[in-house]
Amino acid sequence: MASSDHPIDRQLYILSISKLFKDLATGMLVFIIPLYVANMDSLILQDMPAVLKAGLATTVFGLANSLSQPYMGRLSERLDRRKVFLTTGYITFAIICYIYAISGNFESILFFRIVQGVAIGATIPAIVTMVTHLSASTARGQAIGIYSSLRGAAFGTGSVVGGAVVTYHGFVTGFYISAGLVLLSTILITLFVKETEAPVIKTTDDTSTDGPFIIRTLSVAMFMMIVGIMLILSLLPAYQTRLEASEFLLGIAISAYVISRIVFQVPIGILSDKFGRKLPILAGIFFNAIIVYALGQVDNVNSLILLRLLQGIAMAAVETPLLALAVELSGERKVSSRVSTITSAQAAGVAVGPLIGGVFGGYVSFETPFNISSLLIILSGILVWVALRKNYGNADHYTIAS
C-alpha cells in the first residue's frame, strides 16, 4: 500500500508490466478487426457498406464494455476483489481471439465481440481501483500517468505489429498471436500481482455532494473526446483508398496517437499534481476539437500521422488529470463504482465513434462525422468549464485531497 514516504507502490509497476502483453494484443485487434470484417461474408447484412461493417464490429464491443463496467465495478467493490476479475476477463479475451480466427461470417464476429466487450468490462474498474490503492493522493496524477504510459506503449506498438503481421502473414496469424499474448499476461498477473486493499481511513471527499455532478460532466467530455478519436477506425478502408496508403502506414497512423500520448502522460500528470487539473483538461478538450475537424480534411498519409501525434498530446492533457480528479472526488473506497462512470463513458465512446464514422461516412460524406464530432467536443468543453468554474474555481481543492 502506498504511503507518504513511498507515494507509488512498486506493485504498480509490476501490474503495468504484467499487462503489457495483453495491451499489445488489444492494440493489434483494434487495427485488425475493422479491416478483417470489411470484406467478410455476411448471412444477413450483405449490402452493408464496408466502413459501416468496420464501425459496427467496433461498436458492439464498446457498448458491451461500457454497459458492463458499472455492474462489474459494483460487484468488485461488494466482493472486495480485483485480481480475479482481471484473470477471468483475460482468459475469456484470449479464447475469443482464437475463435475469431475460425469464424466464417460477419454475424459470428459481432456476437463474440459482444462477449469480449463484457470480459474487458470486468477488468477496467478493477484496474483503476488497483492503481488508486497503489498510489498516494499527492502522486495520483503521476501514478495514473505511469500506468497509462506503460499500457499505451504496448497498445500503440500493437497497431504497428498488427499492420506488419496482416501484411506479411495474414489475419489468422494475427489472431493467434493476440491470443498467446493475452494468455502470457494472465500467467504473469496470476504469479506476480498481489491483491490490493482500500485504505482503512475514510477520506473526506467521500462526503462531497458536488462530486457526482462533476464526475458526470467529466464523463460527457471523455465520451466526446473518445468519439472523435475513434472515428478513424471505421474509416480506415476509406483512408486507405483516399490516401493510397498501405496497411503498414495506416498502422503507424493509429500508433502515432498512442505514442505521443504516452510520452506526455507522466509529465502532465506530475504538473497536474502540483498546479491543478482544470487547465490541462480544458486545453486538451478544445485542442482535440480542432484536430478532429482537420482529420476530415487530410489529403496525405503524412498529414494523417502528424494529426494523430497531436491528438495523442491532447488526450494526454485530458485523461490523466481528469481521472486523477475523478478518483479524488470519489473517495478511495468508492472508486470501482463511481469512476466506472468515466471508464464506461470511454468505452461508450469507443463504441459510438466508429458507428458515427461508419454511418455518416458511408451514407453522407467522409467529412461529415468529423465536423459533427468537433462541434460536440467544443460543447462538452464548455460544460466542463462551467462545472469546474461554478463549483471549484481552478479545481485545486482536489489536487491534494485526502
UniProtKB/TrEMBL annotation:
<feature type="transmembrane region" description="Helical">
    <location>
        <begin position="144"/>
        <end position="168"/>
    </location>
</feature>
<dbReference type="InterPro" id="IPR011701">
    <property type="entry name" value="MFS"/>
</dbReference>
<dbReference type="GO" id="GO:0005886">
    <property type="term" value="C:plasma membrane"/>
</dbReference>
<dbReference type="InterPro" id="IPR036259">
    <property type="entry name" value="MFS_trans_sf"/>
</dbReference>
<feature type="transmembrane region" description="Helical">
    <location>
        <begin position="109"/>
        <end position="132"/>
    </location>
</feature>
<dbReference type="InterPro" id="IPR005829">
    <property type="entry name" value="Sugar_transporter_CS"/>
</dbReference>
<dbReference type="GO" id="GO:0022857">
    <property type="term" value="F:transmembrane transporter activity"/>
</dbReference>
<feature type="transmembrane region" description="Helical">
    <location>
        <begin position="248"/>
        <end position="272"/>
    </location>
</feature>
<feature type="transmembrane region" description="Helical">
    <location>
        <begin position="304"/>
        <end position="327"/>
    </location>
</feature>
<feature type="transmembrane region" description="Helical">
    <location>
        <begin position="84"/>
        <end position="103"/>
    </location>
</feature>
<dbReference type="Pfam" id="PF07690">
    <property type="entry name" value="MFS_1"/>
</dbReference>
<feature type="transmembrane region" description="Helical">
    <location>
        <begin position="279"/>
        <end position="298"/>
    </location>
</feature>
<feature type="transmembrane region" description="Helical">
    <location>
        <begin position="370"/>
        <end position="388"/>
    </location>
</feature>
<keyword id="KW-0812">Transmembrane</keyword>
<feature type="transmembrane region" description="Helical">
    <location>
        <begin position="339"/>
        <end position="364"/>
    </location>
</feature>
<keyword id="KW-0472">Membrane</keyword>
<feature type="transmembrane region" description="Helical">
    <location>
        <begin position="20"/>
        <end position="38"/>
    </location>
</feature>
<keyword id="KW-0813">Transport</keyword>
<feature type="transmembrane region" description="Helical">
    <location>
        <begin position="174"/>
        <end position="193"/>
    </location>
</feature>
<keyword id="KW-1133">Transmembrane helix</keyword>
<protein>
    <recommendedName>
        <fullName>Major facilitator superfamily (MFS) profile domain-containing protein</fullName>
    </recommendedName>
</protein>
<dbReference type="InterPro" id="IPR020846">
    <property type="entry name" value="MFS_dom"/>
</dbReference>
<feature type="transmembrane region" description="Helical">
    <location>
        <begin position="213"/>
        <end position="236"/>
    </location>
</feature>
<feature type="domain" description="Major facilitator superfamily (MFS) profile">
    <location>
        <begin position="11"/>
        <end position="392"/>
    </location>
</feature>
<keyword id="KW-1003">Cell membrane</keyword>
